[in-house]
């Protein structure tokens, strides 16, 4: 049981890390899009 628990912990930690990276990437992407929109609107007027 000990080995299984260790393996599961490692998998869970890796999964959390991946989710955190995806969340950060999504945040950066949204910031980038709003920056692009701002630039576009400035050039429009």
The arrangement of helices and strands along the chain is H
Radius of gyration: 20 Å
Low-confidence stretches: none
How many strands appear in the DSSP assignment?
0
Q: Beta fraction of the residues? A: under 5%
The global form is: rod-shaped
Residue share in helix: over 70%
Counting DSSP H or I runs of 4 or more residues, the number of helices is 1
N→C terminal distance: 66 Å
Instruction: Return the domain count.
Output: 1
Mean pLDDT: 91
Structural class: mainly alpha
Largest pleated sheet:
none
Protein name: BRD4 protein
Organism: Cettia cetti
InterPro entries: BRD4_CDT
Pfam families: BRD4_CDT
Give your account of this protein's structure:
This protein is an all-alpha fold and 45 residues long. It has one domain (2-43). Helices cover 96% and strands 0% of the residues. The chain is built from one helix and no strands. It has one helix at residues 2-44. The longest helix is centred in the middle third of the chain and has 43 residues, at 2-44. This is BRD4 protein. Pfam families: BRD4_CDT. Residues 6-45 form the Bromodomain protein 4 C-terminal domain.
Short descriptors:
single chain; 45 residues; mainly alpha; 1 helix; rod-shaped; BRD4 protein
């Amino acid at each position: 049981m000990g080995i299984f628990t260790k393996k599961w912990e490692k998998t869970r930690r890796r999964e959390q890390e991946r989710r955190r990276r995806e969340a950060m990437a999504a945040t950066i992407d949204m910031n980038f899009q709003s920056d692009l929109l701002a630039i576009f609107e400035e050039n429009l007027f």
